[in-house]
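Changelog entry

Holo records now carry the ligand SMILES as an explicit input line rather than a separate metadata file. Below, a converted record for flavin-adenine dinucleotide, shown in the new format.
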Amino acid sequence: MKTKYKTSLKNLNSFGVECFSSNFNIINNEKEIIDFITLNNNPETIILGGGSNMLFKNNIDKPILKIEIKGIEIINETKEKVLISVGAGEVWNDLVSWSLSNNYGGLENLSLIPGNVGSAPIQNIGAYGVELKDVFESCRAISIETGLLRIFKNNECNFSYRSSIFKEEFKNKYIITNVVFSLSKFNHVINYTYEPLKNDLKNNNILSPNINDISKSVITIRSRKLPNPKETGNCGSFFKNPIIKDLDFKELTKKDKDIPFFKISKNKIKIPAAWLIEKCGFKGLKDGNTGTHDKHALIIINHGNATGCEIFNFSQKIKNKVLKKFNILLEEEVNIIDK
Ligand SMILES: Cc1cc2nc3c(=O)[nH]c(=O)nc-3n(C[C@H](O)[C@H](O)[C@H](O)COP(=O)(O)OP(=O)(O)OC[C@H]3O[C@@H](n4cnc5c(N)ncnc54)[C@H](O)[C@@H]3O)c2cc1C
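Structure line, unchanged by the conversion:
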């Protein structure tokens, strides 16, 4: 383990916010985590992956563990499926590229999502009709309080929309060290129900896409729609899309007939947070060093020198206005880290 006592976090968070850690530790294997816990026993330890879903409000005095456990290994194979064990510190998109180069199916719709493998189960990453839970077999995780190792199977993770047991009951309680994925070798399930994906494939005359076609199309759409954090600091969607009751939705449509929605169960409706934010006049708005993206109101951006507090305060202005106008309380998708 390597420990540093004054480390800039500017290049370690995709908002590009400048702040410092006074206790920064780079972790390369499980033993280093257990040794750290034995010596420090600090339940407030912060776990850092690629920093693409974190907003640091201030300098950080709590210990940070930057997980860099590497390795991709096939651990079991049948005629149709392959089980892959992957170190938490592998870059997510490198894993997607590796799976495609081996013609393993299941990750193609999740191409180009920033971040690391160990963070992917935390919010059950998802895009273009697929979520991590669809390919997740199990993960190894170490308790921050006891240092004990536990294996979580898929059905023990309580995966749901942008959430899991690691974001709820066990929030900041476990360090994921390794994830096992179950991928297909033949007869891949090709998912292109998501409208923009369907249209992009159609425009390119691809009528029976394979997993590589899906990945390429997802990359094209994402690159067109989302700001590259290397050029413009951002964390993707700042808020989750709110899920409201059928009756509340009916009430809303009395005022706004054009409100877009997705019915997700008999009496639950999901509304695009971007639409609510846009209707409150925030799309493309600049507020000092921060603001929202001009193509996507749900993405808060750093115009260059924003502090974590500035970004946070701006996000709260959005939240308050949406609450006042629609009586809907937005919930942050981004993890806000205080000190
Ligand atoms: C441009 C852009 C587009 C995005 N698009 C999407 C998208 O389409 N879909 C989507 O779901 N997300 C998206 N995101 C959000 C982000 O990519 C994901 O949340 C990703 O999983 C974060 O990975 P990370 O390694 O950067 O996590 P970090 O930001 O480092 O950490 C995120 C959370 O996970 C915890 N954590 C990290 N590693 C571990 C570990 N090993 N064990 C336990 N806890 C850990 C952290 O403490 C923190 O709470 C996007 C972000 C950006 C910047």
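Spot-checked after migration. Residues 14, 47-54, 67, 88, 113-116, 118-120, 122-123, 125-127, 175-176, 226, 229, 234-236, 335 surround flavin-adenine dinucleotide (CB under 6 Å). The two ends are 23 Å apart (CA to CA).
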